[in-house]
Amino acid sequence: MNISNLLLGKSLKNDDVKESKLNVLWGLPILASDAISSVAYAGSAILLVLLPVAGLYSYKYMLYVSVMILFLMFLLIFSYKQVIDCYPEGGGAYIVAKDNLGPKASLTAAAALMVDYILTVAVSGTAGTEAITSAIPQLLPYKVLITVILIILLTIGNLRGIKEASTVFGVPTYAFVLGILSMIVFGLIKYHVFHYQPKALYPLPTFSKNIGILLFLKAFASGCTALTGIEAVSNAVPAFKKPSQRNAKIVLFLLALLVFLIFGGLSYLSTIYNAVPSDQQTVISQIATQVFGRNVMYYFIQATTAIILVMAANTAFSGLPLLLSIIAKDGYAPRQLTKVGKRLSYSNGILLIAVVSSLLVIGFNGNTDALLPLYAIGVFISFTIAQFGMLVRWMRKKPKGWVGKMFINGLGAIMTAFTAVDITATKFLEGAWVICLLIPFLVYLMIKIHKHYKIANDALAINCNCFKANPKEGKRYFILPVSSFNKSFVKAFNYAKSVADELIVVHISTNKAWTENLLKEWNSYNLGVELVIIDSPYREIRSPLIKFIEKTNKEIAPNNTLTVVLPQLVTSKNWDNLLHNQLSFIVRASLLKHRDIAVVTIPYII
Length: 606
Fold this sequence. Notes:
The protein is an alpha/beta fold. It has helices at 3-8, 24-54, 58-86, 93-100, 103-135, 143-159, 162-192, 213-223, 232-235, 244-272, 283-292, 296-311, 313-329, 347-363, 368-371, 377-397, 402-460, 487-499, 512-525, 542-555, 582-591, and strands at residues 476-481, 502-509, 531-535, 561-570, 597-605. The protein is elongated and about 105 Å long.
């Protein structure tokens, strides 16, 4: 059986594209897994900032921070609902900025989203691995290898296509949601109805202290990781079944509801059950222990939490390839990213994510704490650009109800810009400076790619002087290099002889005895074609051959054509080909710069 078919499944026809699109049921877990999973560590990140300074007051301030984050979330949800209404072709912040703010702003948004999506895969992979190694400490020395394997499995799942990926990755997401919501409901009932008195599993601070605005902002910045992934739905509108806009908006609002219930519920449970960030046990594990005890439900929640942390990467695998295809169609990314694979997914984009995120994991030695400071900056930069872009759109077009829409995007622009600056400032020395350098570099790279494509398109553009009035009037000159007589040369000779008006067979002589034997054999066949022998005293073949070809090309009349025929030996085993044809490859590469010289390769299979 074909390995590709075994791993990825059989190729799908173009007509199957409708069946491969997402509905609401499976679109929600695929595109919301990042946002939903972020709440698993957002609360812990807030407490980690507050507890050392505020002590027992941390739980009070945690609620304030959570309310601020949820307010910002709903602002973003309504804003991206407007983005989906106005831009059904997808692309999110990139398309909004392109339409309203110009190419540089759109490329900045694209670069920011690329960074965020790639980091989503790396962080999710390392976080999932930490959950595994916490349960099985013996695997800790292999954490980098485990993370890379997890990324490879996610890659294979997404290469199988949207339809199969939605089923494979959707079920664990729903299981996580079911488990967490059950824990929140039972936790509230146990505390408020049965008056359970929680006992912190780890020592609590003995002091309480009010905090300043700077510490509050730092806690807010840490908790804003809960908002990553919200933009994924607007980026991937074309991935939904028709009516795609309606389905995308339903998924967006369902996503908001789940984040509100899960993040709000976990934040509240953290305050009443006195959860404490710890290296030994996560905040969710502490809450689940007090709510359920160490029973089946506890282990169900732990298992689904570990899985959802890995599944969060699936949002990036779904959103970024589609975004890259849109950018590539505009000429700012390699055109290969627009190609659809055998399972109707943007396979080149998926593979690119897998490679870059794996390199990040290897480079940071699978350390989640080292990657987290780089996280969420890119997404808030794209949030800000999208808000300002929509603000400009309403001011420019003034449609019905534009004042209310402008207010939403204006307030969103102010808050997301403030949050982006807050996150960057508070995490700058922890590694955020890398993102501040990386995003401008990606913008520069995309501009250079666009410039190259423009130069190439201009050079290839057809004008009225390109076509010859009557190509048959000129002669067809063919040059065929020969080093020895064999069946590969015979096939190339027969082809050239059948189509050439003038055939020139040339031999570069590096050994006199070899050349004399070749000449005797040539004359014995009486082929009716003169053998041109060029002496090479320094035993070099490429340069004398190229010079001869270039000289011949100058000597023939302008209306004539010159073709170089190169025999190529092809073996049944691919690795055997490395032992042959090296000179042919070098000559072919040397002739690529000549527009008026054609190169034909004649394969001979053994």
